[in-house]
Amino acid sequence: MRKAKRQRQMFYLCAKAKRQQQMFYLCAKAKRQQQMFYLCESEASATNVLSVRK
Question: How far apart are alpha carbons 18 and 41 in whole angstroms?
Fold first, then answer.
């Protein structure tokens, strides 16, 4: 009986760790996408500034 309880606890811990890892991945992915958005925006605005100055 104790073994089954321990296995359930281990399963819960593993599932929790997996969820946390997925959340970390999602946050990292969102951060990369946000950085890419800013890079594209700044590149576009730099291009617009250069074309206006000509």
Answer: 34
Question: For 20-50, b where at least 16 C-beta lie within 10 A, e where not — what string?
Answer: eeeeeeeeeeeeeeeeeeeeeeeeeeeeeee
| pLDDT for res 53 | 55
Q: Taking 80 as the threshold, does the pLDDT of residue 41 lie above it? A: no
The candidate with the shortest Cα–Cα distance to 6, out of 48, 49, 14, 34, is 14
Residue 6, exposed/middle/buried by CB under 10 A (0-12, 13-18, 19+)?
exposed
Whole-model pTM: value is: 0.46
